[in-house]
Amino acid sequence: MAIWLASMIVPAGAAAQGAGPPTIDCALGYHGMRADVQSLAGAEWSQEGGYEIATLAVPDRWRVQIAFTAPGHPAHPAVTLRTFRKQVTEVWTAESKGCGYGDQGQFTILMADMKSGDTELTNASRHEVERRKEGKSPLSPAP
Predict the structure, then answer these.
(1) DSSP class of residue 48?
(2) Do residues 26 and 99 lie in contact, with contact meaning Cβ atoms separated by under 8 Å?
(3) Could you give the CA distance from residue 28 to residue 36 in angstroms, rounded to a whole number?
């Protein structure tokens, strides 16, 4: 999970169409959402740490990673969505939600891990923005 969380701070290469990031609809079920996400233009797929992950992004605006648990994962079947949004402060904020169709106890653990990861990723982005601003004059032009 740590590798998956760390990889999410790196901007995705694929550009998705549309004004806002996609979301998930738990009513579709695991397989329904999988089919829905597979139909999204521009999605890049990867496999990491017990997940099959679709990544979509509009550079400098938002990016999402929709993760499907693989068989053998304790919370399988489950789907998670982590959305990153770039704020006017240049900080990328992370927010997760998910749908669990298997063991609800394991799904609760998965979502607690996701929420903790959201905080870590948002704080890391905030610290990076603060680091870049250190040493710059308040009168220097913005990039």
Answers:
(1) E
(2) yes
(3) 9
